[in-house]
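[09:14] KT: can someone run the structure on this one? pasting the chain below
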Amino acid sequence: MSSSLMRCAAVIASLFLAVVIGHAQSINGRIVGTVTDPNGAVVPKASVSVTNEGTGAERTVEADDSGTYVVPELPVGLYTISVAAANFAPANRPRVKVDVGAETRVDVAMSVQGATAEVTVNDQSPVLQSDSSALAEVITNRQVESLPINGRDFRRLTIITPGAVPRSQRGSLGSFTVNGQREKSNIFLIDGVDNNDSFRNQPSFNQGGVTGAPATLFPVDALGEFNIQTQGAAEYGRNSGAVLNILVKTGTNDFHGSAYEFLRNDNFDARNFFEGKRNEFKNNNFGGVIGGPIIRNRTFFFAGYEGQRESVFPPSAVIVPSSAAIATARADNAANGRAENALSTRLLALFPASNSSGTNNYAFGAPNSNRSNNFLAKIDHRVTSKLNLSGRTSSVRVLRSFR
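[09:31] RB: done, structure tokens below
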């Protein structure tokens, strides 16, 4: 009995000793590169420091014997890279951009120590991303704020990605399709956390409401940037479609904020040529965001709000019994000696008279209204240079009425 227990304990111990790190999908990026001398030879054991220009957080690593350095798990933002090595002048590379879930390569060529004590390179040529097989497009915050977005729905920005097209209008679910994949095969992440609606396979934020408009609205000004991978890397499973990784903004050492109002009103519209009058349409999107430090260089906050007030009369058309059809039915009853049913007579009286030609011969407008309030808050805390804590909460209250 004791020998069996010993064997079992040995197997369990072996399993624990064989454990290796398994990296899941990440919202952070990383900086990699090679340190070389003026002749192109590698510089081993160089000290490489990266400093977040927004929060002041600093990370330091050492290049290996081949001159290669890797600084993983860096939050999205702008960084200054400082490289120091014996017998070489210090080198600085400011404003190096790290994107969500992406790898940025920065190779540094050192100068021999001499009259110039420090070398700063302020420009960086675009580098072909050859370190990953993933095909991805980063939608930056500048694009989010500059490009017009119909309905304030961030998913519409995915269409600027090569291979992405809107979903079909045949009643299918999902948001868009990429490279011929199904609309329901996409993956939506917010700050690296699953945000998929299990039935519609749309993001839980901005999924369709009663009339097809978003029932909830992600405050677009709170969107830092997002990465859409049309050919995902190995760490992304679940579905075979695109991977949309959305990053919520974080606070920095400076206070920043904005307020906005978007108005759409039928008073600004011309009448449709084929309609007798303009359909009522009033839509107001308003809100604001603010972010800044709680404890400088240590704790930061970010908060956003977006409200929507909408009133629309979308045109609809249905089939109602026409006067000619009713007259034909009554003539047929009379010719065959059938008495008209009293209940049928009362039901026919409830139908409105047709007001258009065609199969759907009664056109009308059904009033719909939407009132939504969307809140979002996020706190980030830097415990050490290698440990960061982040928490986010969101709240949505929606009141929709339709007839």
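[09:33] KT: thanks! The first helix runs from residue 2 to 17.
[09:34] RB: yep, looked fine to me
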